[in-house]
Amino acid sequence: MNLPRLKIGDIVAKLPIIQGGMAVKVSTAPLVAAVADEGGIGLIAGSGIEIDELKEEIRRSKKMTEGIVGVNIMVAASEFKELVQASINEGIDLIVAGAGFSRDLFTLGKDNNVPVVPIVSSVRLAKISEKLGASAIVVEGKEAGGHLGTDQSMKSLVKKIVDTVKIPVIAAGGIIDGKDIAEVLNMGADGVQMGSRFVASEECEVASEFKELYINATEEDSILIDSPVGLPGRALKNKFTEKLGSSDIEDGTFSCDYICLKKCSRVFCIIKSLIEAKRGDMEKGLVFAGEETHRINDILPVRKIIDNLVSEAKNFLNREESEDE
User: Fold this and answer.
1) Cα separation of 284 and 276, whole Å?
2) Which residues of the chain have pLDDT under 70?
3) Residues 158-205: tens digit of each pLDDT
4) How many structural domains comprise the chain?
5) At which of 159, 175, 202 does a domain end?
6) Of 66, 188, 277, 317, which one has the greatest count of Cβ atoms within 10 A?
7) Does 301 reside within a domain?
8) Considering 187, 202, 217, which residue would you say is the last residue of a domain?
9) Same domain membership, residue 216 and residue 179
10) How far apart are CA 207 and CA 277, in angstroms?
11) CDD domains of this UniProt entry (predicted)?
12) Is the dihedral of CA 158, 159, 165, 167 positive or negative?
């Protein structure tokens, strides 16, 4: 039994796998292109960077692959509309948007014939998205890394949503291996979005210290932090998170070189901390990661990761099919 293709608007991916758009500068061209080359959908992280940087990253990705390349942009970003328009101008294949909800995004997508895929965490937003013209939705549960919009599990949300909308449903949060993929496909999901597994890849352009935190993580290392975005964020324990809430972080002298958010709690600079993490500074850097990151034990090439995922998913689906006969 082969895995189903994933159709979003007019684009069709050979595999029902989307690589999550992880910011800041975690999901960049080499990772995106490698996933796209294997038949999945690669997403550039379009948040926390300048418009010209995003345009260059899209161009770099498109030079490296003929596969499907999208962008993930945080609605909470101060230049959200400008980043979306720049992506459209550069010929991006689809736009995924989370950390907020934008009705204007659907108009931009429709006017430019670019599929729009919002990240939702409730039945209500799933229905609204379909009504406004979403080509698909990413249903994200509490297990996901980064900013969260719910305290409900991914599977509980998928069960509620798959029967309420007719557009493709893409499950996100806590998906690490092929068995996870097979389980949500059996639940009625059309595909999956995976972030954390692809961080621990050779093509991901983050420092070795970042990846080592992933592959050495224990179950207890997954924590929730209060993000300046105004949402909880799922991260891994490190020296930076140990300082959160202390005078070392919240000393009343907050300063920021970035104009990145429409609204900011000004407790610490989210963009600066994410950039420091990408560089490998675990004392100043915040490392976002999914709740199931402790199940990742190795750093592999993207091709090998996807081969493993597909093989595991097929084996699980075929075994279940045989048991039902």
Assistant:
1) 6
2) 1, 245-266, 320-325
3) 999 999 999 999 999 999 999 999 999 999 999 999 999 999 999 999
4) 2
5) 202
6) 277
7) no
8) 202
9) no
10) 8
11) NPD_like
12) positive
What pLDDT was estimated at residue 265?
Answer: 56
* Residues 6+ positions from 180 with CB-CB distance below 8 Å: 174, 192
What pLDDT digit, counting tens, does each position of 29-50 carry?
Answer: 999 999 999 999 999 999 888 8
Which of these, 91, 54, 101, 46, lies nearest to 73 by C-alpha position? 46
173 with 223, same domain: the answer is no
With a threshold of 0.70, does the pTM exceed it? Answer: yes
Distance of alpha carbon 307 from alpha carbon 310, whole angstroms:
5
Contacts of 251 (CB under 8 A, 6+ apart): none
The parent domain of residue 117 ranges over 6-202
Which pLDDT does position 251 carry in this prediction? 44
In a domain, 300, yes or no: no
- The predicted pLDDT at position 99 comes to 74
What is the distance, to the nearest Å, from the Cα of residue 88 to the centroid of all Cα atoms in its chain? 19
| Distance between CA atoms of residues 74 and 78, nearest Å | 9
Same domain, 262 and 182: no
Quote the tokens at residue 54.
């995003």
Residues in contact with 112: Cβ distance below 8 Å, sequence separation at least 6, in sequence order: 88
Predicted pLDDT of residue 145? 92
Statement to judge: residues 216 and 177 lie in one domain: no
Per the CB < 8 A criterion, the answer to whether 126 and 120 are in contact is yes
Which pLDDT does position 245 carry in this prediction? 65
Alpha helix ranges (H) inside the chain: 29-37, 51-64, 80-89, 103-112, 123-132, 154-161, 178-186, 196-199, 208-215, 239-243, 270-279, 302-324
107 and 156 in one domain?
Answer: yes
Q: Is residue 256 part of a domain?
A: yes
Give, to the nearest 10 degrees, the angle between helix 178-186 and helix 154-161.
30
Q: Could you tell me whether strands 169-172 and 11-13 are parallel, antiparallel, or unpaired per DSSP bridges?
A: unpaired
Q: Would you state the structure tokens that stand for residue 162, as one six-digit string? A: 């798959």
The domain spanning residue 171 has which CATH number? 3.20.20.70
**Same domain? 236 vs 165:** no
Predicted pLDDT of residue 148: 85
